[in-house]
Design a protein that fits this description.
Elements lengths: L17 H15 L7 E8 L12 E4 L5 E5 L6 E2 L2 E2 L2 E4 L4 E4 L5 E7 L2 E7 L3 H5 L1 E6 L7 E8 L5 E6 L5 E6 L2 E7 L2 E7 L7 E5 L13 E5 L7 E5 L34 E6 L3
InterPro entries: DUF1684
Pfam families: DUF1684 (PF07920)
Length: 275
């Protein structure tokens, strides 16, 4: 990948750690690779016994009493599960590949009665004109050691969600992240919006000017309370919401996750053809 694809600012190669360059490569792959987020045109969550319609996806989706994901459709709907046409109700094992009308493909995954369905159109990236991600220059001063602190078991925090119109949701927040910046201790709530994904959604004084008003993300590892971890704001990312607002209805920053300073590190904006 050409480094210009992820940053519009020149950087001196010998001052940027190889680990950071590798992260940038992986980040662009996450966005624009074969299964990149920029190619997602629909997604949905399925949990519970009631049938669910996923916008832009044929069929009715639901979880059986045994915890299995199913889809109900007619042959005319053009839905396949692992290459088999659905005409009635079919089980959708976790990890299944879905075929959908218009050459779109989907993937289903989950467990324990909670599933996600993601639909991709491999032409969506080209149609969007997305060419890269603008970032602040790498700055080692924005790398810290943090610590996970225990939260009350089963804690959920009411946060806004980027739906239309805006909504709120009580999202699981299993731990807090403690980090010291310029001698001041900050404790940030860590969300687990999807099983297995730890996420700090934070805001700072660059929001609305150099970075989006809705804040940015730090994606963190799954560790138990008491563990230390690297907190690298150079790896602060844009919300997936910017790629497809109707598809990615991401959470907003929880109360207390504002940093009263300019965090001049990490991603700033998506770059499109002609910008």
């Amino acid at each position: 990948m050409d480094t210009d694809a992820v940053s519009s600012r020149p950087q001196t190669a010998n001052t940027v750690p190889a680990e950071y360059e590798a992260w940038r490569e992986a980040r662009w792959e996450e966005i624009a690779g074969p299964h990149g987020k920029a190619k997602v045109v629909a997604n949905g969550r399925v949990a519970g016994r009631d049938p669910v319609a996923i916008p832009g996806v044929p069929g009715q989706w639901q979880v059986t009493e045994a915890g299995t994901l199913t889809v109900s459709a007619t042959a005319a709907d053009g839905v396949t599960v692992n290459g088999e046409t659905v005409d009635g109700t079919a089980e959708v094992p976790s990890g299944s590949t879905l075929g959908l009308p218009g050459g779109r493909v989907g993937f289903a995954g989950g467990a324990g009665g909670f599933y996600g369905v993601v639909v991709m159109d491999h032409e969506a990236l080209a149609r969007s004109g997305l060419t890269g991600i603008d970032t602040f220059p790498y700055d080692p001063d924005w790398v810290f050691e943090g610590e996970y602190r225990a939260a009350p078991e089963g804690r959920r925090i009411e946060v806004g969600r980027l739906t239309t119109p805006r909504s709120t949701e009580a999202i699981l927040a299993p731990v807090d992240l403690a980090v010291t910046i310029d001698g001041t201790d900050y404790v940030l709530s860590v969300l687990e919006d999807m099983p297995g994904q730890r996420l700090v959604v934070f805001t700072d004084e660059t929001n609305g000017t150099e970075t989006p008003g809705i804040g940015r993300w730090l994606v963190l590892p799954l560790l138990e309370p008491g563990n230390t971890l690297t907190v690298d704001f150079n790896q602060a990312t844009l919300s997936h919401h910017h790629l497809a607002p109707a598809v990615f209805t991401c959470p907003l920053s929880p109360p207390g996750n504002h940093l009263p300073m300019r965090v001049e590190a990490g991603e700033r904006a998506l770059v499109y053809t002609g910008t």
